[in-house]
Amino acid sequence: MKSFTKTLQIILIFFLLASVSIEAKGDKNNLRLLYWNIQNGMWDGQPDNYTRFVAWVKAQKPDVCVWCEAQSIWVTNSDKKLAKEDQYLVANWDKLAKRYGHKYIYLGGHHDNYPQVITSKYPIHNVARLLGSPNDTLVCHGGGWATIEVNNKTVNIVTIHTWPQAYGYGVSKEDRQRSAAAREGDFFRRTEMEYIINHTIGQVPGASQQLWMMMGDFNAPSPVDNSVYNFPKDDSRFLTHNFILEHSPYIDVVKQKNNGIFIPSSVWNGKRIDFVYATKALYDRVKNASIIWDQYTTPVRNAQNLGNFWHPSDHLPIIVNFDMK
Q1: Which of 126, 165, 184, 318 is most buried, judging by how many CB atoms fall within 10 Å of its CB?
Q2: Residues 94, 120 contacting (CB under 8 angstroms)
Q3: pTM of the full predicted structure?
Q4: Are 180 and 188 in contact (CB under 8 A)?
Q5: What confidence tens digit (pLDDT) does each residue in 190-234 have?
Q6: How many whole angstroms from its chain centre is CA 301?
């Protein structure tokens, strides 16, 4: 039965991929978003100078890309750190983006090796780089708030990547087991989300009537998928998305546009933890949206079993088409 369900799911995913690709073709009023957590700066793409990666991105014909984990960190097929001078990304995103047709790049704020980068066919304007404050709420991987202009319409883009661990941020190694058991990581993610909402869409009058999108690796499941997870309703793992659903005008685009079909975005844990949210004003322009599971993007476990390293990534990309006429 499980095998049949898995096969059916894969058929549905490929059908969704085909519909997303076909509808976008040749439409000058279409805004095509590609979001992907590319794991360690597309660690998989380093040996061939990102040739397969660039070819795949070009084939998708995106107008805007949002890349999570957009910095080179490790030697390929190893967990040995790259020397600083050998880290191709983030410094060379302009060169890499030009290879798939994007002229403009934007680097969000970040404290560590896991920034988000936006590349675009349209000029990108910074509004704020989201870092938080050690004396208030720290945004561990940082984030960004930028805008683009499409057909004389301003589109706000918020990028995020929240804390990934069950234990709390900054907890000592000796205390991590206790912290994880108390699910302190869930509560930290919730504080990050509150900070991001309050410092972006939450501070703009009339934002619910404007064109806003927010996307990233939330490292948290949503209660809207609980028919799959069967967690208790008050499970702390839902805190991050509960805050979004209760305190912002955002709509979960992939969930609403796929008739309840569940597609995990992180194959190694079987959960949907990558999301694209949009205000109703922008959501009403969504033609289709899907998590993309194809021959190239399907994660394959690294042979050396290094951490959670996969090829080409441990996450799946999301493509959304918006009607901007």
Answers
A1: 318
A2: no
A3: 0.92
A4: no
A5: 999 999 999 999 999 999 999 999 999 999 999 999 999 999 999
A6: 20
